[in-house]
Write a structure and sequence with these properties.
With 121 residues, the chain is α/β, with parallel strands linked by helices. It has one domain (8-119): 3-Layer(aba) Sandwich (Rossmann fold). It contains four helices and seven strands. The chain has helices at residues 16-27, 40-49, 68-76, 108-119; strands at 8-12, 32-37, 55-59, 61-62, 65-66, 81-85, 101-103. The chain is globular. The two termini are 12 Å apart. This is CheY-like chemotaxis protein.
């Protein structure tokens, strides 16, 4: 059984194919997926209503907007964030410098390593 089994992972990604790929890959570990969501409002609503969340995979640009309101809400709750970006760290505020970053296209081995790292698995 995977170390991620039973963990609740929020996925916020506005590119449908990437969101589905992330969902499928994380579900293979036995983790429960919350989402995927594709907008800031949808993600914040899910965060308010979903109960516990163990970690979040967050596209830094959701629907053309920087996802900082989501990142701030996650940090306020002590939920670790793994950012996803097609542009590297460029444009990501220094406030989030310690959060891991997955570049698009996402390398699945790196995804697993990042999840293990933020969850202490």
């Amino acid at each position: 059984m995977s170390k991620l089994a039973g963990r609740r992972i929020l996925v916020a990604e506005d590119e449908y194919l990437i969101a589905m790929e992330l969902r499928q890959e994380v579900e293979k570990t036995g983790a429960e997926i919350l989402g995927p969501t594709a907008s800031i409002d949808e993600t914040l609503h899910l965060l308010r209503t979903a109960g516990s969340v163990d970690a979040a995979l967050l596209d830094i640009n959701l629907g053309g907007e920087m996802a900082y309101p989501v990142a701030d809400a996650l940090l306020e709750r002590g939920i670790p964030i793994i950012f996803i970006s097609g542009f590297g760290r460029e444009g990501i505020s220094d406030k989030y410098a310690t959060a891991p970053l997955l570049d698009k296209p996402v390398v699945m081995q790196r995804l697993h390593a990042c999840l293990d790292g933020v969850l202490g698995s």
